[in-house]
């Protein structure tokens, strides 16, 4: 009897331990009220226990603090676009901590630096990038610097930004470049703009762990641009299509992610409605396309890899579903497992 009880408790602990939280950012309306949480089974890929974590308007992009105690969300609000901080509860709900202006319309991306003391928000509509100090309790101060890429004749659409040591990189879809800023005297100063092909539309990007390669996914011409660091600067070494060779319709890229071992790169296509898979040469940084697979939905805006690397999950905005795929360990290729209906998912965060 005692043995059976121990076995039951061990089994219960194992089943509980393999479930981790997934937070989902949405566009709010008839089908959604804010940020939702799910339980994700890291062994089976199953999503269960959907819960409204917090009511908030159009939380279209989410990120965590390093310890995952604070969640940050941009809000494409009808009255004043903003970025908010929330504390994460054990029951996977969120408590509002504070909110500050994003200093531009249409905030679409938020990211923290490695130290966790800075946040950066990209404003697609306003064409600005705002940089914030983070307090010890995780709350945000008002932006101490707002970078404006607009000119009198050129419209900026800042779409994403990431820190790398004392550098800040910004993908500007409107201006067609990846900007590199360097921190000097507590301000970020422009070092260089790396231009993409004409009408490419850089949207999101991934930086390799050592910072030697940057992979930029281009929304408008459905390509990935590979930048290689050479003599302290980056140069373009490859442009490769994200689409199937036989696809002839209209399509727009969205998100991009490297696998944890950096052997594979994934991107999403809205229109072809697919995930593209590349094999990556870790030495040269070059890519070889090995798969395009249907997202089993419409308009894959954002996707993510599970922390253990075994699964890939896709947020299909227009078809109101999350599609789940098994990742083959050796080949990196995807196989569809199942799909779960949920209102207007646009960002997935483990």
Question: Strand order, biggest sheet?
Answer: 3-2-1-28
Tell me, rounded to a whole number, the average pLDDT: 95
Separate helix tally:
1
Globally, the shape reads globular
How far apart, in Å, are the first and last alpha carbons?
A: 39 Å
- What would you report as the Rg, rounded to the nearest angstrom? 20 Å
Major sheet: 4 strands, antiparallel
Indicate the structural class.
mainly beta
Low-confidence stretches: 5-14
Q: Which strand-content bin applies to the residues?
A: over 45%
Strand-and-helix sequence, N→C? HEEEEEEEEEEEEEEEEEEEEEEEEEEEE
Q: What is the assembly state of the chains in this entry?
A: single chain
How much helix, percentage-wise, in residues?
under 10%
Q: How many E-type strands?
A: 28
Protein name: 6-phosphogluconolactonase
Family: Belongs to the cycloisomerase 2 family.
GO molecular function, one term: 6-phosphogluconolactonase activity
Signal peptide: 1-19
